[in-house]
């Protein structure tokens, strides 16, 4: 049974399990008659061959209230795009597979590059940004939801709970962030949230002092979850990070653009498991090592934009304070895991903490060396200002790809 705790900064919507199955979906269907919902699925081609996506589609095929599903397909050639079209054809809803590497979209990328507005690196951030652009070009949805394509424990009720807070017209929420426990194979997972973000935010408060932004981030049970729903009028001004700081970046944008009372977090699952990244201690540009550095930079940039002054001494102190906070939390995680019959390898956890501590210094040095770095993809409002026809050209390019490259039978 979930608790009913509210932290006072943002509203937490719990799964108190008092509604019969299907009631929430039915209510959403009524709202969706006048408030259309689009689901975005950022996807690597390799995920079509993974253990999760086929099951996700089986669940989504039973969701009647979706107006459209937009699949952003990355790292695919023409043959793979045609195969992906056939793979997603089981969806009964109106759905579109965007081939992000197609010649037409590559040409549009070159055009944006000439304007100085192109995303600077491939990845999930660029994929999500392109899908949002297509959604805005369609101009027919009131709510956008997004979740990953590698959730092996997926259930369609996750989506019900994710979209309900923003589709219900009597609720004040403009954005809902999903949360859940990260448990799988008898282990306590979610290393980056548990061992980096949580102790880092505790350490930041001690080192730089009270900041409303830090309290806001600490309010989220799972700030790195890839599931959120948002009302579409906020999308044109949303600045999407191009690196691994996507989830923190979106929360920061909500902090910048929305009142706290219009942001909530919602418990969408009792159990959640997906693909796990390698720690990658030997390569700072890969895996959780790269992710941890980018997350730290995202937090540092946001605090600096709000007036916090950082020096090399700040980051050295922050590293030491973080390390102590992380070890203290590790003791809490260990006892929690043991009491619930879950495994937790304290040696591996401490190795992760040591790597993350070094990456705090790394991220701090990158920030100090280039404090004006703006690893954000331009907002769609800015793109529209530079080229008012671009969204229509994007929509046309996607349509032309769909017409030319028919799926394999």
Automatic annotation (TrEMBL):
**What highest taxon heads this organism's lineage?**
Bacteria
Protein name, UniProt field: Glycosyl transferase
**Keywords, alphabetical:** Transferase
**InterPro entries assigned to the protein according to its UniProt record, in alphabetical order:** Nucleotide-diphossugar_trans
Gene Ontology MF terms: transferase activity
Q: What is the lineage of its organism?
A: Bacteria, Pseudomonadati, Pseudomonadota, Alphaproteobacteria, Rhodobacterales
Species of provenance? Ruegeria profundi
């Amino acid at each position: 049974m979930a608790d009913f705790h509210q932290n006072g900064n943002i509203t937490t919507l719990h799964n108190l399990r008092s509604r019969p199955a299907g009631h929430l979906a039915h209510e959403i269907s009524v709202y969706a008659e006048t408030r259309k919902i689009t689901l975005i699925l950022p996807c690597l081609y390799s995920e079509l061959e993974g253990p999760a996506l086929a099951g996700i589609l089986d669940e989504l095929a039973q969701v009647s209230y979706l107006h459209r599903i937009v699949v952003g397909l990355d790292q695919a050639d023409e043959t793979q795009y045609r195969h992906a079209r056939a793979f997603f054809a089981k969806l009964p809803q109106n759905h579109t597979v965007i081939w992000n590497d197609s010649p037409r979209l590559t040409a549009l990328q070159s055009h944006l590059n000439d304007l100085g507005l192109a995303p600077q690196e491939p990845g999930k951030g660029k994929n999500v940004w392109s899908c949002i652009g297509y959604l805005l070009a369609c101009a027919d949805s009131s709510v956008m939801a997004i979740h990953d394509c590698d959730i092996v424990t997926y259930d369609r009720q996750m989506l019900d709970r994710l979209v309900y807070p923003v589709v219900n017209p009597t609720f004040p929420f403009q954005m809902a962030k999903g949360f859940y426990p990260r448990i799988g194979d008898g282990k306590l997972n979610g290393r980056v949230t548990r061992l980096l973000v949580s102790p880092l935010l505790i350490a930041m408060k001690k080192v730089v002092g009270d900041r409303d932004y830090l309290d806001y981030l600490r309010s989220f049970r799972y700030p790195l979850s890839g599931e959120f729903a948002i009302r579409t009028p906020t999308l044109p001004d949303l600045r999407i990070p191009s690196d691994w700081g996507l989830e923190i970046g979106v929360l920061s944008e909500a902090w910048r653009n929305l009142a706290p009372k219009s942001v909530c977090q919602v418990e969408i699952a009792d159990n959640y498991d997906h693909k796990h990244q390698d720690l990658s201690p030997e390569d700072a540009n890969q895996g959780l090592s790269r992710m941890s550095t980018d997350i730290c930079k995202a937090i540092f940039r946001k605090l600096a934009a709000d007036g916090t002054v950082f020096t090399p001494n700040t980051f050295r102190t922050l590293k030491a304070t973080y390390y102590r906070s992380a070890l203290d939390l590790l003791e809490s995680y260990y006892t929690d895991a043991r009491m619930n019959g879950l495994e937790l390898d304290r040696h591996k956890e401490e190795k992760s903490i040591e790597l993350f501590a070094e990456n705090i210094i790394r991220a701090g040095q990158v920030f100090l060396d280039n404090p004006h770095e703006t690893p954000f993809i331009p907002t769609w409002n800015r793109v529209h200002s530079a080229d008012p026809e671009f969204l229509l050209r994007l929509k046309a390019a996607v349509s032309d790809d769909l017409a030319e490259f028919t799926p394999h039978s």
